[in-house]
């Protein structure tokens, strides 16, 4: 008799049953997953670009106030300041939100299976996989 697999989790292209984890196009057997862990990674590169852009912004603003104010120089300096400010804000915002990685630990290696900025979703998937592991017996 064929036993129907129960869905423990099904959302955002991720499904977890008592025997199978499917993430997008990849499938993983629950029997081969020893444990599952979450690692949080901060965007160090974004923070670095934000610091560099912030220093450039300070230099551009101080440079703009020291120059005579013909319209073309003022317009050029203003555009440079706004572009630098935009880079500073974008990189700074990107560096604030960490990325979460769901990692499967198997007998042979660790494998990053899923990455997202949504920590709750990663936590929910982790809990579902842990439940599937405990239900396998």
Overall description:
It is rod-shaped and about 80 Å long. The protein is α+β, with helices and mostly antiparallel strands and 137 residues long. Helix 1 runs antiparallel to helix 2. It has two domains: 70 residues, Roll (PH-domain like), CATH 2.30.29; 53 residues. The mean pLDDT is 81. The chain has three helices and seven strands, in the order E-E-E-E-E-H-H-E-E-H. The strands form two sheets. Strands 1-2-3-4 form a four-stranded antiparallel β-sheet, covered by helices on one side. A three-stranded antiparallel β-sheet has the order 5-6-7, covered by helices on one side. It is 48% helix and 28% strand.
In short:
The protein has helices at 44-66, 71-96, 119-135, and strands spanning 7-11, 14-17, 20-23, 26-29, 35-41, 99-105, 110-116.
Low-confidence sequence ranges: none
Structural class: alpha+beta
User: How many independent structural domains?
Assistant: 2
Question: Can you count the helices?
Answer: 3
CATH class category name of the largest domain: Mainly Beta
DSSP E strands, number: 7
Query: Strand content of the residues, in percent?
Result: 25-35%
Give the CA-based shape.
rod-shaped
C-alpha-based Rg, rounded: 24 Å
């Amino acid at each position: 008799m064929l036993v129907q697999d129960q869905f423990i989790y099904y959302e955002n292209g991720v499904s977890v049953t008592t025997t199978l984890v499917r993430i997008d196009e990849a499938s993983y057997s629950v029997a081969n997953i020893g444990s599952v862990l979450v690692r949080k990674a901060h965007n160090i590169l974004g923070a670095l670009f934000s610091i560099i852009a912030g220093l450039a912004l300070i230099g551009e603003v101080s440079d703009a106030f020291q120059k005579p104010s013909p319209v073309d120089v003022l317009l050029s300096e203003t555009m440079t300041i706004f572009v630098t400010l935009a880079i500073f804000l974008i990189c700074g915002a990107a560096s604030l939100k960490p990325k979460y990685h769901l990692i499967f630990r198997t007998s042979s290696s660790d494998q990053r299976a899923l990455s997202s900025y949504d920590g709750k979703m990663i936590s929910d998937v982790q809990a579902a996989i842990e439940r599937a592991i405990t239900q396998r017996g």
